[in-house]
């Protein structure tokens, strides 16, 4: 038996309203869900990287550390690849005499008073490379009692397709940095600062 609906009843009819409401809400809900998944994965990779980098830095600070750097970095890479198999990593170590030097520029005489180093102004060559540097650190792990800034940068492809919808790059890059002092397994080399004017 067919039920006829009068014209006046159509405006009051609520059959199928849930389906229409779901059709309006579903895309927004799915976008939010993908966003949460993407954020969660990024946080997971970041926390894994941070923990592994801190452990690796402690290993490198030991007396045996300088001879084991390749194996230590390989260990970091292996752990991250368990979480993100196609991740690409870069490793950077910069050593300083003490914590006060981390991120500091080499002192210079600001002859023209413009607040920045210009060629020809005298500077203190702390890292002994015969050029003025905005960071006095030297490449590498340094020696006993030196402070080491260890940074690992990781690039990996996003797992969830949200990046396509949001206009982001597929590749996401994160990094983890830690600063540790090498153990005093020998005498620390002193700083020999030469003043260069060129």
Q: Please, could you describe this protein's structure?
A:
- With about 200 residues, this protein is an alpha+beta fold.
- It has one domain (about 15-195).
- It contains 4 helices and 6 strands, in the order H-H-H-E-E-E-E-H-E-E.
- It has helices spanning about 5-10, 15-60, 70-85, 160-165, and strands spanning about 90-95, 120-125, 140, 145-155, 170-180, 195.
- It has a 4-stranded antiparallel beta sheet, covered by helices on one side. The chain has a two-stranded antiparallel sheet with strand order 2-6.
- The N and C termini lie far apart (about 100 Å).
Topology summary:
Layout: H1 7-10, H2 17-60, H3 69-83, E1 88-96, E2 122-125, E3 138-139, E4 147-157, H4 162-166, E5 171-181, E6 194-197
Antiparallel strand pairs: 1-3, 1-4, 2-6, 4-5
Helix pairs in contact: 2-3
Which sequence of SSEs, written as H and E, runs from N to C? HHHEEEEHEE
Please give the domain count. Answer: 1
Low-confidence stretches: none
Percent in helix: 25-40%
What is the number of strand segments? Answer: 6
Radius of gyration computed on alpha carbons: 29 Å
Distance between the termini: 101 Å
Largest sheet: 4 strands, antiparallel
Structural class by secondary-structure content: alpha+beta
Question: So how many helices?
Answer: 4
Strand content: 15-25%
The largest sheet has its strands arranged as 3-1-4-5
Shape verdict? elongated
User: Average pLDDT value?
Assistant: 86
